[in-house]
Amino acid sequence: MKSKLNGTAPLATSAGLNIGRAVALAFAVTLVMTVMSLAQGMDGNSLKWAVDAEAGRLTVRRAEDKREWRGEQLAEIDYWDANGKEHSQVLSAANGWTMERNATDHGCRLECRQPQFGFSFLLGFTAKDDVLTVSISSSSIAETGAARLKSMRLLPRFGAATEGDPGCLIIPKDVGILCQFRDKSPAAHRLPVYVNFNNCNMPLFGLIRDTSGFACIVSSGQFDAQFRISTNWGPRHEYAADPAFT
Fold this sequence. Notes:
Blueprint: E1 26-34, E2 47-52, E3 57-62, E4 69-71, E5 75-80, E6 86-90, E7 98-104, E8 107-114, E9 119-128, E10 131-137, E11 142-143, E12 148-154, E13 161-162, E14 167-171, E15 177-180, E16 187-192, E17 204-209, E18 212-220, E19 225-233, E20 238-245
Antiparallel strand pairs: 1-10, 1-18, 2-3, 3-4, 5-6, 5-12, 7-8, 8-9, 9-10, 9-11, 12-20, 13-20, 14-15, 14-17, 16-19, 17-18, 19-20
């Protein structure tokens, strides 16, 4: 079957988020940044990165690479309200979220709270060499109101390219898909990991732009993960992939 990524129709269903599950200690993704040259950055790392908790933004670049990879959102949740109606919400101060930043070894941790709906969790960032790990501890997820979480999406559209940019998305479907940033119909796909009919049997994807790129590896929670893949999407005509956990 030809894929519309090349591309097949959107795949996937979703289930309720199992709070406090014993299997997954964290929902975690590891970003491995690659460029043609390797250089050392601050504190012995080859990465320079910053988290803006107020704006909800992440920027990452290799120490001597000119390209800065940006994510305009740290996370997004889908949830059911007290009446069972489904909603989506980006983590931002404008949406009533507070994000208190605390330093950790080789990184930081954000205490994220949404008092209106009673949601809270810890969002961690840890850097080592050319690897940045972003994680949500499942034991930290709390629902103290009537609303219930459905899914959590990490780093939505991080590093997104636009129509006509040189490069491609690398997607682990079937024998592998190289999705170039041109001539695709606007679409938003959902690709569950480890679901046989999807033939997506590796919890990773990549994005290449010019001579630099990154790989995203779902290092925890992969059995509850799906990839959200955008092609020529929205007013910016973006191409991107990111993980969501259900």
